[in-house]
Amino acid sequence: MRKGNNTQTTTKRLQNKPQQVSKPVKGLAIGKDWRVGADSLNIILYRRQVNKKIGREYWRAHSYYATVTNVLAELVNQGIRDTELADLKTVCDKIDQIHKDIMTFSTLHFSYKKMP
Questions:
Q1: What's the predicted TM-score (pTM) here?
Q2: Under 8 Å CB-to-CB from 45, ≥6 apart: which residues?
Q3: Which regions of the chain are under pLDDT 70?
Q4: Segments making up each domain of the chain, as ranges
Q5: How far apart are CA 83 and CA 85, in angstroms?
């Protein structure tokens, strides 16, 4: 016979589970599958996912960072991992596409004006 309560283990597992967000995620879109958001402590990288059973799209928290620089570095690294290192041209093309997405993101959301 088992002694003790299994509630603590279950609660701990739920706390470590990535957050699924069904409501629209506020934040800045980078490409079609990524979004950068923030809370009071972290910068959050969200990834778009689709429920295969009902075809519903949702955003899931992929990872948490302290700086925007680290988020952008992770986007490049994740893009490389997504290619599964098929060949050098595929990896280079993916890196170029990610850089274009980041530049589009930065020019849309941050405009620098010259001071008179």
A1: 0.60
A2: 34, 35, 36, 61, 62, 63, 64, 65, 71, 74, 75
A3: 1-25, 105-116
A4: 18-109
A5: 5
